[in-house]
Write a structure and sequence with these properties.
With about 160 residues, the protein is mainly α. It contains 7 helices and no strands. Helix 1 packs antiparallel against helix 6 and helix 2 crosses helix 7. It is globular.
Length: about 160
């Protein structure tokens, strides 16, 4: 799945041609999609890091792609858990990924949550910046982020 397509779909929901403000359901879906764009970018990077970025996707690539757990992302990408050895760009991407998951949960599960068009646009722009940051990372950085997200650190 192309992460940019998730953001394009989110933009379409926000910019829907109709009178007045966009519907809350559209804004909620747009905010939720911003997280999924980042999630699928991370899943792609993880699968490429572990199974190779070949055009021919096989079962090992798919298994690595599907091996990422949303709860694991949240737990591992909180700022205090990100290794200091990560570049500032990758650290920021990880922190933003965890933050976007919180926004997705609000959009998907909180019946009292309300979003403005400006908020949804801000989330889309933020997600686009995070995608750019991840894509700008070198293979070693992407692999380190994948390992960080996939594997829990065990205490000695």
């Amino acid at each position: 799945m192309n992460p940019s397509h998730w953001l394009e779909a989110a933009e379409q929901l926000v910019d829907e041609d109709r009178r007045g403000a966009p519907r809350q359901v559209n804004l909620r879906c747009a905010v939720s999609m911003t997280y999924y764009a980042l999630f699928h970018r991370l899943a792609n990077s993880t699968a490429d890091a572990f199974a190779g970025g070949t055009r021919q996707k096989d079962w090992s690539w798919t298994r690595a792609y599907r091996g990422i757990d949303h709860r694991q992302i949240r737990d591992q990408c909180r700022s205090k858990r990100i290794p200091c050895s990560f570049s500032p760009r990758i650290r920021r991407c990880a922190i933003e990924l965890a933050a976007m998951q919180v926004h997705r949960h609000r959009a998907d599960y909180d019946p009292e949550a309300r979003f403005s068009k400006a908020e949804a646009i801000k989330h889309i722009e933020n997600a686009r910046n995070v995608l750019t940051g991840i894509e700008a990372g070198n293979p070693a950085e992407k692999r380190a982020l994948a390992i960080h997200v996939l594997f829990k650190e065990r205490s000695a």
